[in-house]
Amino acid sequence: xxxxxxxxxxxxxxxxxxxxxxxxxxxxxxxxxxxxxxxxxxxxxxxxxxxxxxxxxxxxxxxxxxxxxxxxxxxxxxxxxxxxxxxxxxxxxxxxxxxxxxxxxxxxxxxxxxxxxxxxxxxxxxxxxxxxxxxxxxxxxxxxxxxxxxxxxxxxxxxxxxxxxxxxxxxxxxxxxxxxxxxxxxxxxxxxxxxxxxxxxxxxxxxxxxxxxxxxxxxxxxxxxxxxxxxxxxxxxxxxxxxxxxxxxxxxxxxxxxxxxxxxxxxxxxxxxxxxxxxxxxxxxxxxxxxxxxxxxxxxxxxxxxxxxxxxxxxxxxxxxxxxxxxxxxxxxxxxxxxxxxxxxxxxxxxxxxxxxxxx
Length: 360
Description:
The protein is of the alpha+beta class and 360 residues long. The chain has 2 domains: 5-237, Rossmann fold; 242-357, CATH 2.40.50.100. Helices cover 26% and strands 35% of the residues. Helix 3 (96-106) runs parallel beside helix 5. The longest helix has 17 residues, at 170-186. The model has no long low-confidence stretch (mean pLDDT 92).
């Protein structure tokens, strides 16, 4: 175990009816943000509540700042070093200053020290001008900033966040993410974040933990999870929009052919004849052309019809029916050059090496 870690979970088990959360070998280093992703019901919020000491585990074996903790009472005594930020701001019907001050009062922090901390974090989060406003007059983004300030003034060693920005629009979310990133650079704090928003995860997380059925099935840096997702959920979360299942019909040197509804896709890798595999293709790895005799070194090329077009700020999402569905992302400039419309016949091509095979 790295000595700079705030928390190391050797074993943590929580049972709730038929559901069992069983976590082993989970590291939460100081000054790092760990993000948990997974299906609904995978155990993400249960894990947060257990780490917050808000539910009692049936098994507990932790090392907290080098000290072994094997019973709930000992772990509960550490609650002052752990703060949890819930999905809703949960503000009192009081001024912003009084809301931020609440935890400091409970801890009997002297008045001058309280004011100094409140003013510092209010300034950092851009809400200094709101300190005398009442909470019911705040916008959703302002209320979220107040709840963040209330957490940060306590200067926790571990900050737990459960879907903290889900109610915000993109503008408010991006602004808050920038401020949080700056605060965390100067605060000796570990963060454990649960979110369904990929942008939040990639902006804040140093490492990602993937949960499924109450267990960690994958852990790594964001780049590792993006390039080698363990399952279909993780692949979809990380932006792989084409996920297909087919049967291996022919083996090649360094690869194999898979049948998808009568069409064959060449994939680099190792498989067994007759094996059924599931694989994914990232949308940016699919090239679209309107030339019927499109020439390319790519091993896979299919004629299909555009069956859907969706615009975003950064790309255009193109759905193509080739007998199976492919999803490609192209730049707005490429979209204008191609003059694409629904019903157009196009050629979609991708490399055999650009295909990711999911583990069984």
